[in-house]
What we know:
Blueprint: H1 12-16, H2 20-31, H3 44-52, H4 54-62, H5 78-95, E1 101-104, E2 107-110, H6 119-122, H7 124-130, H8 138-150, H9 154-161, H10 173-189, H11 193-196, E3 197-207, E4 213-222, H12 227-230, E5 239-247, H13 252-256, H14 262-271, H15 275-279, E6 282-291, E7 298-303, H16 311-331, E8 342-343, E9 346-347, H17 351-355
Parallel strand pairs: 5-6
Antiparallel strand pairs: 1-2, 2-3, 3-4, 4-5, 6-7, 8-9
This protein binds iron/sulfur cluster.
Amino acid sequence: MSTADFVLPFDYDTALHIPADEAITIASKALGLPILGGPSGRGWSWYSTAQRCGHLFNIERLKNPQNTAPVELRHPSAPLQIGTYYHALQALYYAVGLGDALLHNRGLRAASVRRGFSAWWANPINIKARTFRVDPMAADHLLDRLKLLADQTANDLAASVDDSINRQPRPNASYIAEAERAFDVHTGYYGDGREEVQPLAIEWHATHPDGYTCRYDTVGALLEGDRLVQQSVFKPGDVVVYERKTSAWMSQAAQFGWSLEGEILGELWCWDHGPRQLFGDLKAIIVDVVTKEKKPKCERLILQPHELPALPDFVRSIRYTDEEITQWRRTGYYPKKLAACYDRWGKCGLWDACARGE
Ligand code: SF4
């Protein structure tokens, strides 16, 4: 039998590993670090599942074990988990530049950003009481702790030969290693980028009045030394959002697909409802892609708001999806969309069950 013939049981990873967001929470708490990022709530992840397939939406979003609120999957796909680790490392790496920071809804903003906040918050004494600084080595500390959590122990080895011993689920070490590689490549490629941008907020959560939510990886003001300022694309002080993505390879979607991507359009949609009052006008969303190939590549795409004309269509589709969800709930019928069983990430996680007619 070749290695290609060896197929792992469907729930192999589920049984042995805890998901990335859970591992990050455990590690961050142990280190006294802020827990940053994670599910945005009713954002693009929620709607994209509904737009993919009603049955999938019902099982994954409405019936999953954490059914009390719209939450992420208990066991997300490998690319999603690698991306989650990567985002956590990036968040702590750039949060250092915030200086005195305030925590809100698993996001941080610089205490110096006070626009849109009440007079209470504008009082320096009140702010000082609640601020803290992120250690410059925080990302490295998190990485070390995650590796420790993922490390095999004597207990695991004993459990592997004796079924009566409970094996402790732990994070998937290979996902952490992949995230570390992407993190190293990105920070190496952009050199001292941490010093060229003034971060204003990290993993900032925003909610549109319609209920749509999003999370901005980094909101920052460009400084004199930033390469986009030196290339005269933007001026010092211009406010941009950085979105950091990992991709298996530099596919067409990874290079050019962002102007029609729900997460990006959702961030532009939410900007006028909170973020703009806090941070000012948005000059661009900068998408930084790093690939997970043997020789990783980096690509940067700069999207200015006028280059995202698909926004009205996106908003319309979100509102239409809300109506569909209401109808599914009312009728109890969540249609299976067989044209969506394979997408760019491969086979849907429910494919085997659906193929059995369940
Ligand atoms: S396998 Fe197809 S029909 Fe079944 S949940 Fe997934 S996308 Fe829907």
